[in-house]
Amino acid sequence: MTGPHIRELVLADCDRVAEIRVRGWQSAYRGLMPQSFLDALSVAQDAARHRARFGQGDGTVVNLVAERAGEIVGWACHGPYRGGEARTTDAELYAIYVHPERYGEGIGQALLGESVRRCRAAGHPRMLLWVLRDNISARRFYERAGFTADGAEEPFEVEGVEVPEVRYARELPRPR
To answer: Other C-beta atoms within 10 Å of 63: how many?
Structure first.
């Protein structure tokens, strides 16, 4: 099976991306977050947020979609690292989701690989990301892609339940 086609998001993709994101949360975070929170996630509301943000900003945030046989099956978003007040030249993977019915097909690897490639080409020295501490499968996915936990941890709470995040980093050396 050939890899998915990766391209930039267009406005018409927002509904499908919202479905992938919501279904991804509901699948990946089951047992890690309150089920009532996951059940209340709305594809329609998420799509409206994506449409409202589309075309805004300075172009430094990149939304990618993965297509297979003409169907969008995954989404990733990266841009400048959001490290509070201190701006760095690092990049951050803000999100990556694959439709749960398509797990294990290499879609996430393709999206992550393209995000890393673009961030390296843009001159970012490192790529950082945040992942739920107890999301072991996601942590293994990032570790297989060369990311390592760097010791930073952030509190995160959903409906009174603590679900802390840990930061992962990967150096992006420029090709010689």
So the answer is: 20
